[in-house]
Amino acid sequence: MAELLHVSDITAGYGDGPAILDGAHLTVEPGKVHCIIGPNGAGKSTLLKSICGMLTIRKGDVIFRSKRLNGMRPDQILREGICFVPQERALFPKMTVRENLRMGGFIIDDHKELHRRVEEVLERFPMLKAKADEFAGTMSGGQQQTLAMARTLIIKPSIVMLDEPSLGLAPKVIQEMFDIMKTMSAEGITVLLVEQNALMGLKNSDWGVVLDLGSTLFEGPAKEILADPRIQELYLGGKKAAA
Ligand SMILES: Nc1ncnc2c1ncn2[C@@H]1O[C@H](COP(=O)(O)OP(=O)(O)OP(=O)(O)O)[C@@H](O)[C@H]1O
Ligand SMILES: [Mg+2]
Protein backbone atom coordinates (compact mmCIF):
# COMPACT_ATOMS: atom_id res chain seq x y z
CA MET A 1 0.00 0.00 0.00
CA ALA A 2 1.14 3.55 -0.67
CA GLU A 3 2.78 5.45 2.16
CA LEU A 4 0.80 8.18 3.84
CA LEU A 5 3.64 9.71 5.80
CA HIS A 6 7.34 9.24 5.41
CA VAL A 7 9.99 10.51 7.79
CA SER A 8 13.44 10.16 6.26
CA ASP A 9 16.48 10.23 8.51
CA ILE A 10 15.67 13.44 10.33
CA THR A 11 17.89 15.42 12.66
CA ALA A 12 16.12 17.63 15.21
CA GLY A 13 16.64 19.11 18.67
CA TYR A 14 15.26 21.72 21.05
CA GLY A 15 16.21 25.32 20.21
CA ASP A 16 19.94 25.60 19.65
CA GLY A 17 20.57 22.51 21.76
CA PRO A 18 22.18 19.27 20.66
CA ALA A 19 20.52 17.00 18.15
CA ILE A 20 18.14 14.67 19.99
CA LEU A 21 17.06 12.88 16.85
CA ASP A 22 19.70 11.91 14.34
CA GLY A 23 18.76 9.33 11.75
CA ALA A 24 15.16 8.81 12.82
CA HIS A 25 13.01 7.35 10.07
CA LEU A 26 9.49 6.09 9.91
CA THR A 27 6.99 4.80 7.38
CA VAL A 28 3.29 5.24 7.99
CA GLU A 29 0.70 3.41 5.91
CA PRO A 30 -2.92 4.46 5.77
CA GLY A 31 -5.43 2.91 8.14
CA LYS A 32 -2.92 1.03 10.26
CA VAL A 33 -1.83 1.28 13.89
CA HIS A 34 1.88 2.10 14.26
CA CYS A 35 3.74 1.87 17.54
CA ILE A 36 7.05 3.53 18.41
CA ILE A 37 8.93 1.79 21.21
CA GLY A 38 12.30 2.45 22.85
CA PRO A 39 13.86 3.23 26.22
CA ASN A 40 13.36 6.42 28.23
CA GLY A 41 15.02 9.36 26.57
CA ALA A 42 15.27 7.61 23.19
CA GLY A 43 13.53 10.54 21.51
CA LYS A 44 10.08 9.02 20.99
CA SER A 45 8.17 12.12 22.10
CA THR A 46 10.64 14.32 20.24
CA LEU A 47 9.88 12.38 17.05
CA LEU A 48 6.12 13.01 17.35
CA LYS A 49 6.77 16.69 18.17
CA SER A 50 9.00 16.98 15.10
CA ILE A 51 6.31 15.54 12.83
CA CYS A 52 3.65 17.95 14.10
CA GLY A 53 5.85 21.03 13.65
CA MET A 54 6.78 21.80 17.25
CA LEU A 55 10.51 21.42 16.54
CA THR A 56 12.65 22.60 13.65
CA ILE A 57 13.86 19.78 11.46
CA ARG A 58 17.55 20.40 10.76
CA LYS A 59 18.09 17.61 8.27
CA GLY A 60 15.90 15.08 6.48
CA ASP A 61 12.27 15.35 5.47
CA VAL A 62 8.76 14.75 6.71
CA ILE A 63 6.57 14.02 3.69
CA PHE A 64 2.82 13.68 4.03
CA ARG A 65 0.83 12.77 0.91
CA SER A 66 3.77 13.88 -1.25
CA LYS A 67 3.86 17.27 0.52
CA ARG A 68 6.88 18.38 2.54
CA LEU A 69 5.86 19.40 6.08
CA ASN A 70 9.29 20.70 7.21
CA GLY A 71 9.04 24.31 8.26
CA MET A 72 5.26 24.34 8.58
CA ARG A 73 3.63 25.54 11.83
CA PRO A 74 1.74 23.10 14.10
CA ASP A 75 -1.63 24.67 13.20
CA GLN A 76 -0.86 24.31 9.49
CA ILE A 77 0.07 20.66 10.01
CA LEU A 78 -3.15 20.15 11.96
CA ARG A 79 -5.09 21.60 9.01
CA GLU A 80 -3.37 19.01 6.83
CA GLY A 81 -5.06 16.40 9.02
CA ILE A 82 -2.32 15.38 11.46
CA CYS A 83 -3.49 15.60 15.05
CA PHE A 84 -1.22 15.21 18.09
CA VAL A 85 -2.28 14.21 21.60
CA PRO A 86 0.67 14.90 23.92
CA GLN A 87 1.52 12.76 26.91
CA GLU A 88 -0.23 15.12 29.32
CA ARG A 89 -3.35 14.96 27.09
CA ALA A 90 -3.68 18.76 26.98
CA LEU A 91 -7.33 18.87 28.06
CA PHE A 92 -8.86 21.97 29.62
CA PRO A 93 -9.75 20.65 33.10
CA LYS A 94 -12.04 23.57 33.97
CA MET A 95 -14.00 23.32 30.76
CA THR A 96 -16.77 20.83 30.18
CA VAL A 97 -16.44 17.75 28.03
CA ARG A 98 -18.52 19.44 25.32
CA GLU A 99 -16.37 22.58 25.46
CA ASN A 100 -13.22 20.48 25.21
CA LEU A 101 -14.61 18.83 22.09
CA ARG A 102 -15.40 22.27 20.63
CA MET A 103 -11.79 23.33 21.30
CA GLY A 104 -10.64 20.34 19.25
CA GLY A 105 -12.35 21.97 16.30
CA PHE A 106 -10.83 25.43 16.65
CA ILE A 107 -9.72 25.33 13.02
CA ILE A 108 -13.33 24.86 11.85
CA ASP A 109 -14.88 28.26 11.06
CA ASP A 110 -18.39 27.01 10.31
CA HIS A 111 -20.09 27.05 13.74
CA LYS A 112 -23.04 24.92 12.68
CA GLU A 113 -20.71 22.30 11.26
CA LEU A 114 -18.61 22.36 14.44
CA HIS A 115 -21.75 21.90 16.57
CA ARG A 116 -22.84 18.99 14.36
CA ARG A 117 -19.45 17.29 14.68
CA VAL A 118 -19.33 17.73 18.46
CA GLU A 119 -22.78 16.14 18.82
CA GLU A 120 -21.75 13.35 16.42
CA VAL A 121 -18.72 12.51 18.57
CA LEU A 122 -20.86 12.61 21.74
CA GLU A 123 -23.28 10.13 20.13
CA ARG A 124 -20.37 7.86 19.42
CA PHE A 125 -19.05 7.85 22.98
CA PRO A 126 -22.02 7.38 25.36
CA MET A 127 -19.74 7.82 28.38
CA LEU A 128 -18.75 11.30 27.12
CA LYS A 129 -22.37 12.15 26.31
CA ALA A 130 -23.38 11.29 29.86
CA LYS A 131 -20.69 13.66 31.13
CA ALA A 132 -21.01 16.30 28.42
CA ASP A 133 -21.67 19.15 30.86
CA GLU A 134 -19.17 18.09 33.51
CA PHE A 135 -15.68 19.54 33.85
CA ALA A 136 -13.06 17.39 32.14
CA GLY A 137 -10.86 17.63 35.23
CA THR A 138 -13.39 15.70 37.32
CA MET A 139 -13.16 12.59 35.16
CA SER A 140 -10.99 9.50 35.69
CA GLY A 141 -7.72 9.03 33.79
CA GLY A 142 -9.30 6.61 31.30
CA GLN A 143 -12.25 8.92 30.70
CA GLN A 144 -9.89 11.84 30.13
CA GLN A 145 -7.83 9.81 27.67
CA THR A 146 -11.03 8.81 25.87
CA LEU A 147 -11.94 12.50 25.64
CA ALA A 148 -8.48 13.38 24.33
CA MET A 149 -8.82 10.73 21.59
CA ALA A 150 -12.44 11.62 20.80
CA ARG A 151 -11.46 15.27 20.50
CA THR A 152 -9.13 14.47 17.61
CA LEU A 153 -12.11 13.11 15.63
CA ILE A 154 -13.73 16.55 15.42
CA ILE A 155 -11.41 17.59 12.59
CA LYS A 156 -11.83 14.23 10.80
CA PRO A 157 -8.07 13.65 10.86
CA SER A 158 -5.95 11.49 8.57
CA ILE A 159 -3.38 10.69 11.22
CA VAL A 160 -3.75 10.73 14.99
CA MET A 161 -0.50 10.70 16.96
CA LEU A 162 -0.75 9.68 20.61
CA ASP A 163 2.09 10.00 23.11
CA GLU A 164 1.80 7.30 25.78
CA PRO A 165 -1.99 7.05 25.83
CA SER A 166 -1.81 4.27 28.42
CA LEU A 167 0.19 6.26 30.98
CA GLY A 168 -1.19 5.89 34.51
CA LEU A 169 -4.16 3.76 33.46
CA ALA A 170 -5.26 0.36 34.80
CA PRO A 171 -4.70 -2.64 32.45
CA LYS A 172 -8.42 -3.07 31.69
CA VAL A 173 -8.74 0.61 30.83
CA ILE A 174 -5.58 0.44 28.68
CA GLN A 175 -7.20 -2.29 26.58
CA GLU A 176 -10.24 -0.03 26.09
CA MET A 177 -7.91 2.70 24.75
CA PHE A 178 -6.36 0.24 22.30
CA ASP A 179 -9.85 -0.84 21.23
CA ILE A 180 -10.72 2.80 20.45
CA MET A 181 -7.51 3.07 18.39
CA LYS A 182 -8.41 -0.10 16.49
CA THR A 183 -11.88 1.25 15.72
CA MET A 184 -10.32 4.49 14.51
CA SER A 185 -7.96 2.62 12.22
CA ALA A 186 -10.79 0.42 10.92
CA GLU A 187 -12.52 3.64 9.90
CA GLY A 188 -9.46 4.71 7.95
CA ILE A 189 -7.81 6.95 10.51
CA THR A 190 -4.13 6.16 10.75
CA VAL A 191 -2.76 5.85 14.28
CA LEU A 192 0.82 6.51 15.34
CA LEU A 193 1.45 5.96 19.00
CA VAL A 194 4.33 5.94 21.44
CA GLU A 195 4.04 3.23 24.03
CA GLN A 196 6.08 2.66 27.17
CA ASN A 197 4.70 -0.87 27.52
CA ALA A 198 6.37 -2.10 24.34
CA LEU A 199 4.87 -5.57 24.48
CA MET A 200 1.31 -4.36 24.85
CA GLY A 201 1.83 -1.64 22.26
CA LEU A 202 3.19 -4.01 19.62
CA LYS A 203 0.56 -6.66 20.28
CA ASN A 204 -2.11 -4.08 19.50
CA SER A 205 -0.38 -2.60 16.45
CA ASP A 206 0.26 -3.51 12.82
CA TRP A 207 3.62 -1.79 12.49
CA GLY A 208 6.45 -1.27 14.97
CA VAL A 209 9.34 1.17 15.14
CA VAL A 210 12.27 0.72 17.52
CA LEU A 211 13.91 4.01 18.39
CA ASP A 212 17.05 4.29 20.50
CA LEU A 213 19.50 7.16 21.02
CA GLY A 214 17.55 9.29 18.56
CA SER A 215 17.72 6.95 15.61
CA THR A 216 15.52 4.21 14.19
CA LEU A 217 17.08 0.81 14.75
CA PHE A 218 14.35 -1.18 13.11
CA GLU A 219 10.89 -0.81 11.67
CA GLY A 220 8.62 -3.47 10.31
CA PRO A 221 5.49 -5.51 10.95
CA ALA A 222 4.78 -5.59 14.71
CA LYS A 223 4.64 -9.41 14.59
CA GLU A 224 8.19 -9.55 13.23
CA ILE A 225 9.47 -7.24 15.95
CA LEU A 226 7.75 -9.31 18.64
CA ALA A 227 9.40 -12.45 17.24
CA ASP A 228 12.91 -10.98 16.89
CA PRO A 229 15.11 -12.50 19.63
CA ARG A 230 17.49 -9.51 19.65
CA ILE A 231 14.69 -7.01 20.12
CA GLN A 232 13.04 -9.25 22.71
CA GLU A 233 16.26 -9.28 24.67
CA LEU A 234 16.92 -5.55 24.47
CA TYR A 235 13.49 -3.92 24.46
CA LEU A 236 10.82 -6.41 25.44
CA GLY A 237 12.17 -7.71 28.72
CA GLY A 238 13.61 -10.98 27.39
CA LYS A 239 12.22 -14.01 25.60
CA LYS A 240 9.70 -15.15 28.20
CA ALA A 241 7.94 -11.81 28.38
CA ALA A 242 7.29 -11.79 24.64
CA ALA A 243 6.04 -15.39 24.46
N1 LIG B 1 11.88 20.55 26.05
C1 LIG B 1 13.08 20.01 25.99
N2 LIG B 1 14.21 20.75 25.93
C2 LIG B 1 15.43 20.19 25.85
N3 LIG B 1 15.65 18.87 25.82
C3 LIG B 1 14.57 18.06 25.88
C4 LIG B 1 13.24 18.58 25.95
N4 LIG B 1 12.38 17.53 25.98
C5 LIG B 1 13.15 16.43 25.91
N5 LIG B 1 14.46 16.73 25.85
C6 LIG B 1 15.56 15.79 25.76
O1 LIG B 1 15.41 14.99 24.60
C7 LIG B 1 15.82 13.65 24.85
C8 LIG B 1 14.73 12.73 24.37
O2 LIG B 1 13.55 13.00 25.11
P1 LIG B 1 12.14 12.43 24.71
O3 LIG B 1 11.18 13.04 25.65
O4 LIG B 1 11.90 12.61 23.26
O5 LIG B 1 12.34 10.88 25.00
P2 LIG B 1 11.28 9.71 25.09
O6 LIG B 1 11.81 8.61 24.24
O7 LIG B 1 9.93 10.25 24.77
O8 LIG B 1 11.40 9.27 26.62
P3 LIG B 1 10.29 8.83 27.68
O9 LIG B 1 10.11 7.35 27.47
O10 LIG B 1 10.91 9.12 28.98
O11 LIG B 1 9.03 9.61 27.43
C9 LIG B 1 16.12 13.55 26.34
O12 LIG B 1 17.51 13.57 26.49
C10 LIG B 1 15.50 14.79 26.92
O13 LIG B 1 16.27 15.27 28.01
MG1 LIG C 1 8.21 10.50 25.85
TrEMBL record:
One of its GO terms (molecular function) is ATP binding. Keywords: Amino-acid transport, ATP-binding, Hydrolase, Nucleotide-binding, Plasmid, Transport. Its EC number is 3.6.3.-. It is an enzyme of class 3 (hydrolase). Residues 5-238 form the ABC transporter domain. It comes from Rhizobium favelukesii. InterPro entries: AAA+_ATPase, ABC_transporter-like_ATP-bd, BCAA_Transport_ATP-bd_LivF, P-loop_NTPase. The keyword ATP-binding applies. This is Branched-chain amino acid transport system ATP-binding protein. GO terms for biological process: L-amino acid transport.
